[in-house]
Hints:
This protein is mostly helical. It has one domain. The protein is built from four helices and no strands. The radius of gyration is 18 Å and the shape is globular.
Amino acid sequence: xxxxxxxxxxxxxxxxxxxxxxxxxxxxxxxxxxxxxxxxxxxxxxxxxxxxxxxxxxxxxxxxxxxxxxxxxxxxxxxxxxxxxxxxxxxxxxxxxxxxxxxxxxxxxxxxxxxxxxxxxxxxxxxxxxxxxxxxxxxxxxxx
Length: 144
């Protein structure tokens, strides 16, 4: 294991992956706590609660991944947010759909939500790294 961490590609993804997990954990805390408030305190049905709680979590995840996970300080917030919405919009639909299906199938609503998040974690990391927050390489035109 120690030898494989010397490879820059692997080292980058291991440490980025750990930061992604921390940000995902923060997003999950926002997601679960707001879901609890919506369902248990405000009396919203879980199907509607999933939409609200996932929306809150997405805002936290965008900014924490941009600045902490991928250390991307480019001023392309609009472009990145549109890409983020494309990736996480798809993930949002899948998350709500999977959680709703599992809840409909009889799983407890929080467990259904946890499984939906876990299923989509790899999708979100891969596309965040390679598409949403990918930095533009500075090309030396004279070298071409």
